[in-house]
Design a protein that fits this description.
The structure is a single chain. With 187 residues, the protein is mainly α. Helices cover 82% and strands 0% of the residues. It has one domain. The radius of gyration is 17 Å and the shape is globular.
Length: 187
């Protein structure tokens, strides 16, 4: 049970310790992968556990890089395809970032199947979906009633909240058995 909440706690502590938001954005994939990999060290399938943590870091950076490249390409493609007004352009940006973040979360979890013992994949996908919905709701609440205002500060807030909630979702998915045993004891 402790593992489930230790991973997001480590993310929060690491983000607070990094002095600048620019540095934090570069290190977010590292923070996420280490918080999930180290906390769930015993759940790694690979015999060499340190190699498993290293591969978790590589996968995390690969997914973040793929997300950045695909958002850049799709944004350029959508600008070329449609002549849109400023309001529609903002809506397209919101849709791209929202769907990109969700797809990145799912893709990273899919890659985690190869490294970690996952008891119930359906539970993992459901947990990720619910946690991602919470991110979108939080961004709605804290963005002055304009859905996901993506200035520099807001996008950084989105990424940091993404990392925190996804580390919680991944930890819940990887530790489902322990979480269910804890909830059964509470009944």
């Amino acid at each position: 049970m402790l593992r489930t909440f230790l991973s997001p706690l480590l993310v929060v502590i690491a983000v607070l310790l990094i002095p600048s938001i620019d540095r934090a954005l570069f290190f977010l994939p590292l923070i996420l992968s280490l918080s999930v990999g180290i906390v769930n060290f015993s759940k790694l399938k690979i015999g060499n556990k340190y190699l498993g943590v290293f591969l978790t870091v590589v996968q995390s950076y690969a997914v973040f890089l793929a997300l950045a490249v695909s958002l850049f390409v799709f944004d350029a493609l959508l600008e070329d395809v449609a002549l849109v007004s400023n309001n529609e352009s903002g809506l397209i940006g919101i849709i791209l970032v929202t769907m990109g973040g969700f797809l990145a979360a799912m893709l990273l979890f899919y890659f985690f199947f190869f490294l970690f013992n996952v008891d119930n994949k359906r539970f993992g996908f459901l947990t990720i979906t619910i946690c991602y919905a919470l991110i979108v709701i939080l961004m709605q609440v804290f963005s002055n009633n304009e859905f996901l205002q993506f200035g520099v500060g807001k996008f950084a807030s989105f990424l940091i909240s993404w990392i925190i909630f996804m580390s919680l979702a991944y930890s819940m998915a990887l530790n489902r058995t322990e979480l269910m045993q804890f909830l059964d004891k509470k009944r």
